[in-house]
Amino acid sequence: MKFIPLMRVNINEEDIKSVETVLRSGMLVQGTEVLEFEKKISSYTGCKEAVAVSNGTASLHLSLIALGIKKGDEVIVPALSYIATVNVVELVGATPVFVDINLDSFNIDTSKIKNAITPKTKAIIPVHEFGLACNMSDIAKIAKEYSLFIIEDAACALGAKENNKHAGTSGNAGSFSFHPRKAITSGEGGIITTNDSKLANKLRTLRNHGISVKNEKVEFTEPGFNYRLTDIQAALLNSQFKRFNKQLKKKNEIATYYLEYIKNDLVTLPSQYKEKTHSWQTFHLILDKRLNRENIIEKLKTKGIGSNYGAQCLPLMEFYQKKYKLDCSLNFPNALHAYNHGLAIPLYDTLNIEEIKYIVEEINNIEL
Ligand SMILES: *Cc1c(COP(=O)(O)O)cnc(C)c1O
After folding, report:
1. Average pLDDT, whole number, for the chain?
2. What percent of the chain has pLDDT over 70?
3. Which of 110, 202, 227, 287 could form a disulfide linkage to 53, CB 3.0–4.6 angstroms apart?
4. Is 287 helix (H, G, I), strand (E, B) or coil?
5. What is the Cα 321 distance to its own chain's centre?
6. What is the tens place of the pLDDT at every residue in 87-138?
7. Residue 190 near ligand 1, beta carbon < 6 Å
8. Ligand 1 nearest-atom number relative to CA 81
9. 81 in ligand 1 pocket by Cβ < 6 Å?
10. What is the full DSSP assignment across 210-268?
């Protein structure tokens, strides 16, 4: 059997043709393909507006800026995520306040959010970790009580729902990524969903040098970025999006198979929740403490299976460790545990049944 990588990018001939069409048209930057993709995402997620940007980090960054988050403000972030979630908070000069996760969902522990709120708190960035939607109704209640903005980091959550409400549509803004590690990809790419049309207009201005069209006249109303997505990228996304639902269904079938057939006392499987539809961006196991995770990754590699840790314990990363000197084992034991003992295994629609069975067999073979 060929090596089974942790992730396989799935670009077909039709995707390539769609890019060729854009290249031959001569209209390369933000244009009709971007507009079409924005419409697709707003209709798919059920959100009023979608604003495409150059990547998922740009979408978080722009959302914070558009909502006016700045120096002196505090922003609540989960202690477990990808580093971009917290970097953007630092980059606007605000202070991140970490909250531990729940080890069943790997999402922010909503019961610990209130304790982290101070008079300086301006926003919460819940992360739908590994593609499982957070308890957004609880988070929305807290945000309302304390007048906080919500920016959902839905980078992994295209297709994820809670009570049929799509991830990224409950807060002020939702941020998605189209990095090759994510469900559909344009190499780099991102989009912001929002139900607030005023915010959407501000985001559109800010992603494009501060341009605003007033009475058909172009004006520069504030200093902005160049965070545009190109039509080359949007064409790739539009083309892949046609098979997205099919992919999601296949991924769900594989996850169901894993959940049924992975049986090893040294391995804890991800939890499932009745009210939630998982996007299965990442199938994330927790290994028994007695196992050395790095050795397991190496061993799986020699068996022909790619795997890796799932997400970072953010306050432990060098910059944050040095700046805030937080004791992770004391304050964020769950995030630390997931960072040290988590294992992401391959899950994507192009896995065939032999590969799936082989992965299950090798996970079941893990021993002390
Ligand atoms: C991938 C990811 C990002 C960053 O997205 P990019 O498109 O790579 O900038 C942010 N947050 C989370 C949780 C992610 O998984």
Report:
1. 97
2. 100
3. 227
4. strand
5. 23
6. 999 999 999 999 999 999 999 999 999 999 999 999 999 999 999 999 999 9
7. yes
8. 13
9. yes
10. TEEEETTEEEE-S---B-PPPHHHHHHHHHHHTTHHHHHHHHHHHHHHHHHH---TTEE
Calculate mean pLDDT across residues 36-56.
Answer: 98
Q: Which of 179, 181, 236 to mutate to test the pocket of ligand 1 (most atoms within 8 A of CB)?
A: 179
CA of 177 to the centre of ligand 1 (A): 6
Atom 5 in ligand 1: residue holding the nearest Cα: 56
What are the helix (H) ranges across the chain? Answer: 13-25, 32-45, 56-66, 84-91, 113-116, 136-146, 197-207, 231-241, 244-261, 293-302, 318-324, 328-331, 333-341, 353-364
* CA nearest neighbour of 347 among 154, 182, 204, 190: 182
With beta carbons less than 8 A apart as the criterion, state whether 175 and 168 touch.
yes
In the three-class reduction of DSSP (H, G, I as helix; E, B as strand; rest coil), residue 167 is classed as: coil
With left for phi above 0 and alpha for psi between -120 and 50, is residue 187 left, alpha or beta? left
